[in-house]
Specification:
Layout (H helix, E strand, L loop, with lengths): L11 H17 L4 H17 L1 H12 L4 H19 L6 E6 L4 E7 L2 E6 L6 H12 L3 E6 L4 H17 L7 E3 L5 H10 L2 E4 L3 H8 L5 E3 L5 E5 L5 H13 L9 E7 L3 H10 L3 E3 L3 H11 L14 H7 L10 E5 L17 E7 L2 H14 L3 E7 L3 H10 L2 E6 L3 H4 L34 E7 L10 H5 L1
Parallel strand pairs: 3-4, 3-6, 4-5, 6-7, 8-9, 8-13, 9-12, 10-11, 11-12, 13-14
Antiparallel strand pairs: 1-2, 2-15
């Protein structure tokens, strides 16, 4: 448990929530690994079994995203996250290192404050709730005001499962009638904060005086290398970039294609039947103006369909189109289309050498998205390593749909999560995917290493 408590002047509601959470956590701290895992497993299974209901609730309340994709996301994340947590030790003695003669003991942090974004109103609280409880903590959700109903429904459903397993009241709670002030008070009062949301909220979390885990802006460039199955790469990019109407922070935003393959690449995108493309400069500019009025992302395009984005620009985009693709003038500062769009609009630009592609991708990231992710379709190990070395990113997604896999999957080694740390590039404390291990303290018991030969000064400095 936390030794110190916040001295911040609290909203009475927040003070009561935190007090109840501390009482619940003190009881829950005594639960065994198997008891904890039973609750965590059932939370994931609830979301998996009720994906259709929860997807409908999310779309209806927030007004953004794609219903079918949200079903896929809920089922996929629930499976992947529980699979990653299953069998992992997080209570009591979790490991021993005989060579170093160390024993590792896991202990809770206390009360977790989890801020939930409008773009992911179900899976983010599921994920962060599972991580928090896996490590013996209590959790309080601070939902986006336009996702309040989803958060309250999940809290009630999750607490019902806690009670089935004999858990304490108030182990999982939610702020009612949320506001920025209440969320700020919560962050100042809990023991650790997980802030999955916009830049201002993440900055506020890091200013709360409590340990915090935040995320940075996404703006994923995707490089198509030479010597690959171009059709397969295009299919994966379409799948990733169009998923949930482009609101996933790790979705492909800007395609870089070899100069000599540019026309063929565009043709394959349009042949998919899911991509609407135009090289008409008037239409491209109209879409720029709609997505970035005054040079800033238009909140009204976030998470709406490609057809709806087109209509806002006075363009009749077919209902069958999942994605709008536009040729960019250049990378980085050369075209505002090089920035994060959070809607089903992506840009495409030709490149000459592979090194040129990496530099263009880097230029985009340095404008927006540094520390987050990049994607690459390549069979060239030297190119894969070069991109990984050169780009300011926390993860390079290779030969996969980025939006579906950067946050972990059953087929890669990234930790399944909904909170993707962006390191110091993105102003974050971690440069990896948030996992349960970030929400626990670890005590180390150190004893003398029997038979350890102490090196001489001459050996040390040799």
């Amino acid at each position: 448990m936390s030794i110190t408590q916040s001295t911040a002047s609290l909203d009475p509601e927040i003070a009561a929530l935190v007090a109840r959470a501390r009482t619940a956590q003190a009881v829950f701290e005594g639960f065994s690994q198997s008891q904890v895992d039973g609750i965590v497993r059932d939370i994931g299974k609830y979301v998996y079994d009720n994906a259709e209901l929860l997807a409908r609730m999310a779309v209806d309340e927030t007004g953004i995203g794609n219903y079918e994709d949200k079903i896929t996301k809920k089922k996929g994340k629930a499976r992947a996250i529980w699979n990653s947590l299953k069998g992992k030790k997080s209570r009591g003695i979790i490991d021993e290192d005989p060579e170093a003669n160390l024993i590792f003991v896991a202990k809770p942090m206390g009360v977790v404050g989890a801020v939930t974004p409008i773009t992911n109103p179900v899976v983010t609280p599921m994920c962060n709730g599972m991580f928090a409880l896996k490590t013996g903590n209590a959790v309080i959700f601070a939902p986006h005001p336009k996702a309040q109903k989803c958060a309250e429904h999940l809290t009630d459903a999750f607490m019902a499962l806690v009670k089935v397993h004999g858990g304490p009241d108030d182990l999982i709670q939610v702020i009612k009638n949320g506001s920025i002030t209440k969320t700020q008070a919560l962050m100042e009062s809990v023991d650790v904060v997980v802030a999955t949301g916009g830049g201002a909220m993440v900055k506020s979390a890091y200013s709360s005086g409590k340990p915090s885990f935040g995320v940075g802006a996404g703006n994923v460039p995707v490089i198509i290398d030479r010597g690959i199955d171009l059709g397969a790469a295009v299919d994966k990019i379409v799948t990733g970039a169009s998923f949930d109407n482009g609101i996933i922070c790790s979705h492909e935003q800007f395609v870089l294609a070899p100069q000599e393959m540019f026309d063929e690449t565009v043709a394959l995108f349009t042949a998919s039947g899911k991509v609407w493309y135009t090289d008409d400069e008037a239409q491209i500019q109209a879409l720029r103006d709609v997505v970035f009025p005054g040079g800033h992302l238009n909140k009204d395009v976030v998470g709406i369909s490609a057809r709806e984005v087109g209509a806002m620009a006075g363009i009749d985009v077919p209902a069958s189109a999942r994605l709008i693709m536009l040729p960019a003038k250049g990378a980085g500062e050369d075209d505002i289309l090089a920035r994060e769009k959070l809607c089903p609009v992506i840009a495409i630009l030709p490149y000459e050498s592979f090194e040129d592609a990496v530099q263009k991708a880097k230029a985009n990231l340095l404008v927006e998205g540094a520390g987050h992710s990049a994607a690459l379709h390549s069979n060239d190990d030297a190119h894969i390593r070069h991109a990984g070395l050169e780009l300011p990113i926390s993860r390079l997604v290779v030969n996969q749909p980025s939006s579906l896999t950067a946050g972990g999957s059953l087929t890669n080694g990234f930790a399944p999560t909904t909170t993707l740390g962006c390191g110091s590039w993105g102003g974050n404390s971690i440069s990896e995917n948030l996992d349960f291990k970030h929400l626990m303290n670890v005590s180390r018991i150190g004893q003398v290493i029997e038979g350890k030969v102490v090196p001489t000064d001459e050996e040390i400095w040799a």
